[in-house]
Amino acid sequence: MGQDKKYIIIAVSVLIAESTACNNFGAARQESAPQSATTYISARYAQAKTRPTEMTLKQQLESILSNQYESEDGDLFKVELLVGMSESEIENLKSKLPKNNLPHEIEELLRFSKGFEFLGLEEIRFDAYGHFGFEEMFPHSIQLAGDGFGNFWILDIDSNGNWNSVYYVCHDPAVIVKHSENLVEFIKHIDEFGQKGNQSNLDIIHEKTVMDIWSEKVGIMEKNEKDYDFENRQVELPKMFLVADLTDKPIKTGFPWGKSGPKTKIIRPTDEPIWIVEKKVNQGFLSRLFGRKK
User: Fold this and answer.
1) Whole-angstrom distance, CA of residue 111 vs CA of residue 95
2) How far is CA 235 from the centre of its chain?
3) Model pTM greater than 0.90?
4) What phi-psi label fits residue 289: left (phi over 0), alpha (psi between -120 and 50 degrees) or beta?
5) Longest dimension (CA), the chain
6) Between the CA of residue 64 and those of 57, 59, 184, 193, what are the distances in Å?
């Protein structure tokens, strides 16, 4: 066997949302008289014009400023905005980001406010670039917030400076969960947390989803049938590893990253949400398997 590497490739656990969340889609219908292409396109265009456009980040944050929330102790509170960033602070942040790229919508948000305070969470910051220590998991990231117990919400930034999904990184249990599709949805989830408490997406992930993923109650892990070209990416692969692939996965999907202990090797080979997680086998098991004694 010598230098041969053994690959154990599995799919990540996926928490299936309750069926009630999926029953609001309209049913397809068949037209009794087919429309012409021109009529159909015109109708679709007119329909699209009437749809409300999605809020920008700044607008989404502004939309929750007047909301009043109630804590578990009955205290009323609101979002408390932090001041916006100055021109020099913006330029300093740009100099640190991949390719010095700060998307226009993010810059607009940061000029308005660099974050806010929200009861129940540590200070939420949009400018905390490079504060998260696990570069092997997230080479470029914004540490959005912490829960006060060593767990964090991280926004993933790719090598071109694009701001992508938000992940909840938990250390006990050692699990990563896709929390929000983007920063707009994360702000919505903060608002929902204030409105619904333990029934909110944030609280469910924080209290239940991480435990489900760690204990594998979420579902049986299946072999990942995707082909990966890790050998040609100039990364030193562990002898045995698992592949956690969150590409196009819904929120509340995640994987345990610490099953093999605190010194587990983790590799993020590309910008894609794909992690190579070292798989360590108990030495006593190997000794019994090959008939050797320690």
Assistant:
1) 16
2) 24
3) no
4) alpha
5) 79
6) 11, 9, 12, 12
Kindly give, in sequence order, each residue whose CB lies less than 8 Å from that of residue 214, ignoring residues fewer than 6 positions away: 173, 174, 175, 256
Structure tokens, 55: 């809020």
Q: What is the 3-state secondary structure (H, E, C) of the chain?
A: CCCCCCCCCECCEECCCCHHHHCCCCCCCCCCCCCCHHHHHHHHHHHHHHCCCCCCHHHHHHHCCCCCEECCCCCEECCEECCCCCHHHHHHHHHHCHHHCCCHHHHHHHHHCCEEECCCCCCEECCCECCCCCCCCCCCEEEEEECCCCCEEEEEECCCCCEEEEEEEEECCEEEEEEECCHHHHHHHHHHHHHHHHHCHHHHHHHHHHHHHHHCCCCCCCECCCCCCHHHCCCCCCCCEEEEECCCCCCCEEEECCCCCCCCCEECCCCCCEEEEECCCCHHHHHHHHCCCC
pLDDT tens-place string over residues 219-270: 323 445 566 777 666 777 888 888 899 999 999 999 998 887 878 889 999 9
Using alpha carbons, select from 2, 5, 1 the residue that is nearest to residue 231: 5
HSE-up of residue 254 (Cα within 13 Å, Cβ side): 31
Q: How does residue 22 score in pLDDT terms, banded at 50, 70 and 90? A: very low
CA distances from 13 to 2, 24, 44, 281 (A): 32, 25, 38, 21
- Neighbour count for residue 124 (Cβ, 10 Å): 23
